[in-house]
Structure formats: C-alpha cells, structure tokens
Amino acid sequence: GPAPGSPAASVETHCPYCALQCGMALRPAADGAAGGVEAVGRTAFDVNRGALCGKGRTAPALLSSRVRLTGPLVRRRPGGPLEPASWEEALDRVARGLSEVRAAHGPDAVGVFGGGGLTNEKAYALGKFARLVLGTSQIDYNGRFCMSSAAAALNRAFGLDRGLPFPLADIPRTGCVILVGANPADTMPPALRYFAELRERGGKLVVVDPRRTRTAEQADLHLAPRPGTDLALALGMLHLVVAEGRVDEEFVAARTTGWPEARAAAMAHWPELVERITGVPVPRLREAVAMFCDAPASMVLTARGPEQQSKGTDTVGAWINLCLATGRAGRPLSGYGCLTGQGNGQGGREHGQKADQLPGYRRLDDPAAREHVARVWGVDPDVLPGPGRSAYELLDALGRDVRALLLTGSNPVVSAPRAAHVEERIASLDFLAVCDVVLSETAKLADVVLPVAQWAEETGTTTSLEGRVLLRRKAVDAPPGVRTDLEVLNALAARLGWERGFPTDPEEVFGELRRASAGGRADYSGITYRRIAEEDGVFWPCPDVPAGDGSPGPHPGTPRLFLDRFATDDGRARFVPVAHRPPAEEPDAEYPLLLTTGRVPAQYQSGAQTRRVAELNDAAPGPFVELHPRLAGRLGVAGGEPVAVVSRRGRAVAPARITAGIRPDTVFMPFHWPGAGRANSLTNPALDPVSRMPEFKVCAVRVERAGDG
Ligand code: SF4
C-alpha cells in the first residue's frame, strides 16, 4: 500500500472529524505502526487538554490505508466498471461531462454538493467555483442536514448565527445546563468533562432525550419526551416560568422585543397538556424549571435532536424563548448555544457553499452583499446567480432539472434522508464526478472519481463549534497520484475556460476569504494564519480594525457575543411566538412506533472514513435496533435477533438490542452504515419550512421479526 511520508517532527494540528476540533500532534510513530504516524492529544489546547476519542486517536490509520484511493477512476462506458485513469483523462472527462450538460440544459442543470467537513478555504473556493466558473445557482452541502435549523433560529432571535456565543470553558462556571437532544458522551467524549466539572462545582445538568444515553445517565434530571415533542416541552417550561412569576421582566423590557406574543403562545400550552403531548410528568417539568431558574446563571444547549425536525427552527426558537424570558442570554455564563456536529460545520456555512449565501455569511439576495463579493472576485455583480435549492431539494432534482453533479466531502447515499430514493436520483444523473479519499457508496455511482488529499496532507483552517478559527497544518505528503481539492478546482476551472486561475495555496485562498468576509456577519478579515498559530485559534467576528474600546493593537476576536447588544438592527433579541405541532408523520395502525436515529462513539457520519479504520470497525461493526423490553416481548424478539424496521419509504434490517433505556413507543437506529441496515432508508425528508432541514429524528415505523417480512 502507499506509505505517506512520516512527519519530520511533531506537527500541531486538529482532528479531522467532529466540531470539537480537538488539538492533536502528529508525530513519527514510536513503533513504526499506522503507516509511521501517530496522533496524540495536545495538552496545551484548552478544549480537549490532551484527550482524544477513539476516532481522533486512530485518524492517522486512514493515511496509509490500503483502501484509500491513490489514482483517478473513470467509467469509460455506461454500465461499465470504474477503471484507473490518468489525471489528464479524468479531468478532461469531468470538464466535458459538466460542459456538455451546461450547453444542452443551461448552467442551472449543473449542481455542486459540498460538505461540512471541508476546510474554510475549500468551502469558499467551491462556492466561488460554482457561481463563477459553472455559473450555477445549484450549490448546497450536507451541513443543511446538520444544524441548519439552529442556524436559522439563531439568526432569527439574535441576528447572528454562531453556534456557541461563548467558549466551552464557560460551561463549568454556569449554574445549570439543559442539554436538549445532545449526547456528547458518545459523539464528542472529550467535551464531557465540561459537564462533569459543572456538576463537581455544584451546578445542575438536565438532559432532554427520548433515550437514556450515557450523557443522560450523568444528569441530575433526565426528561424523556416522545420524539418530536420537545418544542411542547420548552413551551410547558415557559408556561411554568410565567405561572411561577420567574420571568426576568427587567431583562425582557430592556433587551428583547416580541414578548407579549411569545408569552401568549406559551400560556396556551398548560403543563397538563404538555404532559399529554410529551409524556413528561408535570412534576418533572417543574423540577427542570426550578433547576434552570434557581441557578444564578444557566444555559440551554441543543444538538441534532431538536434541530433535525420538520419544525426544527421553531423547536430551537422555543428553547431560545425560555432563555430570553428568564434573562439567560446576552449575559455572562448564560445563553443558548448549539453543539455543532461536523468538523467544520460552523465554517462550512459561512463562506458560500450554502444555496443562499455568499462569503462572510452574507445573503445572496442582498444587493450590497453581491456588490462586495463581486468586487473581491473581480466580476460584475450581475453575473452572480441567485439562491439555489437546499440540499434535499437539490438531491431530489437530480436526473431531472439538475443533470450533472460535482460532489466533494459528502456521502449522501448513506447520509441523506429517504436514501434509496436519493440513490436512485444520483444514479439517474447524466454525469457525476466525486472527489473523495475512499470509494464511498456515492463515489461508486460516479462517472469519474478524483482521489483527494486527506486532512493531514494539506493545510487549511476550520471553525470549531465555539466559532474559533483553527489551523490544521500539513504534516505529511500525500501519496503520488493524489491531489488537493483546491488543485482539482484549479485544473477544472482552466479546462472550463476560466482564465484567471484558482489559487491552490490555502493561505492565499484564506487571504481572499478574509477580504470577501470583511464587513460581513462572519468577519474573518483580522485573522491570519500567523495569528491563529500564535493564539491557538481566534474567535470570529474579528475585523481588521482595532477593537474600538481604546485598547491598542489588532482586534482580539470575540469569544463572547451579545453581552452589550444582540446583532439585530435595534440590538434587541427577538422572541418568536411558536406553537406545538406534531411531527410530519404520527404513528398509526400500520406504522405504530416512532423511529429516531443517531450515532455511536466509534463511527462518524456516513462512516465512509471510520468504517475503514480496523479498530473502529471492530468496536462498532454494524447497525442495530434499540427496543424496549416490553416491545421486544410483544414482538417475540430476543436480543441479537435480526429485526426489520419498516417505514413508508423503505425497510432496514439489523440485530435487536434490547434496553430499558428507550421509550417503549420508540426505536433507535444509528445511521452510519449502507446496505440492508441503512437507517436512512427509513427517514422522512419532510422539510422545515424555514431552514429546509429534513426530519431525520422522527418518523413512523413498524418493527417485525426479520424472517416474517
Ligand atoms: Fe476528533 Fe471529535 Fe473525537 Fe475530538 S471528540 S478526537 S474532535 S472526533
């Protein structure tokens, strides 16, 4: 197999996987294992203080894996195999495939699909490539499936979307945290210490989750609502806040707008009604309110649970309303935050690979934004296309309105909702090009597969869940035959008639990104590679001007937001009145149960990378179906026996795992695997009207013994 170059010495960088972006050092392996490279946690990086989870620790294994791609693959005839090809042939094929479709059907028949794992530089270059070189409006990315509803709710309430408006280090110092639909014990284990420390200092941890997760086990209070009802739960708590006279009237008057409407909406959700909707007893609700309000400061943190719903934006909005009514936002050690999932989930949404956005988190339909970015790009604003389709709508349009696709950093055959349908749409394309490090399930369908460099083989920045811009440094050379995404875009741009070239040096791209972001909501203009290295990360916004508080020197960056004012026009946070509504699918006679999906510690997202790391695969070799003993008894299913989960969209088969840690009306499946056990064969693509987030977290299913089907 290809052996990557060993790092000459220890190189400081960050993990390729989740949004915690743990600091790690890559160094020559002591025992020559893992292709000569090992990853060790960096104790000096204050987020993980040396800790890494199994995914981060084993990440170097993929650098030297025999299954990684080390040369382009081309399908030379329809229905034929993917065969090795030269870069010349492969790039020519991609350029021809994209331009033929463009010539025949117009620029919007060509789509681009990106990912929340791409570095800031790549996300920026991909958006620019789509809009200038291809001239298409049809670009979106898998981050739409990740936290887009939290982003929309943050924009709506605070005028700015940064997942966490405070650093993680504030968590142990607050008085109470409500974690909603978040399971860091499994998804980002090193983050768990923040909550453990909170409890050691006497703070309270409340976990809202239909499952008794390993995170819930550590909570002072665990509320287990029916999936898809946490909006009602938040409203019930707000109702009690009002009824018990716990509203912070002074804060509401001074720093918010819209309270009367939000209050009226909450008052319509009296606790007994909320108990009927959620299944959470009123006394538990009261306990949660007391823990939250008795503490001098408190936080609500959400993750995918409340966000991946067809009412995700309103659900997050309901939790924000609770924070605002109690004065728990825009104050030290208090606030609402989102625990972003993907490695660059935050940065991925700021630089223009989102269907409706330009760099700097600017809106594509804002004339001033178009003008600014067009100036940086040296083009007329009129050549910039308008907003395109959101991720699921784009995938759903493949083979119809969108007939050619360039995809990088994503594996929607496994990770998209209603995945069998999405797979069919992808297979019906006139032309598909995929950039990846391995032959993912989506790459297998491509006409051309371009092997790209991995995280440790190129430099770039990511923006962690804290809104902190970090530097991932190149530590080893990529094998010959592999190119970086930036080099691929440059080579394609040249072939597609873009004469000005696309920079391939990440620092040069970052320089351009800084200019494009200047004055935008996510302003990076004061951030340089050098500063990131010296300061071990810089929190945006960080404009290229002095801080304005009289202190000398450059802007220090902004670890804490909203302490003086929110980012809305009038500086006030906006209450948004929201009401309970049921999930898009409710159980009925045919599909009497609810399915919720999620993750396991040893796998990441679609598993394209982690399933190919032996140690992780041994730890989590395949999917399973969690069911309550009562349900298992009724079905006559024993632990380990294969069961079929059936929804209106498909069927998935996996061994039963029987646990009292789940509601009897709910089953759970992790979604990291393709094939017969693909959980996303079942999930519902019903979209949130505001964020266009699909309803991954709840749909109606029935469960059968697999033999009975
Ligand atoms: Fe990597 Fe996330 Fe694990 Fe840290 S918690 S090592 S960032 S996957």
Automatic annotation (TrEMBL):
Q: Please report a single Pfam family linked to this protein.
A: Molydop_binding
Top-level taxon of the source organism: Bacteria
Q: Where is the 4Fe-4S Mo/W bis-MGD-type domain?
A: 8-67
Record SMART domains? Molybdop_Fe4S4
**Sorted UniProt keywords:** 4Fe-4S, Iron, Iron-sulfur, Metal-binding
Please report the name of this protein according to its UniProt entry. Answer: 4Fe-4S Mo/W bis-MGD-type domain-containing protein
Species of origin: Streptomyces glaucosporus
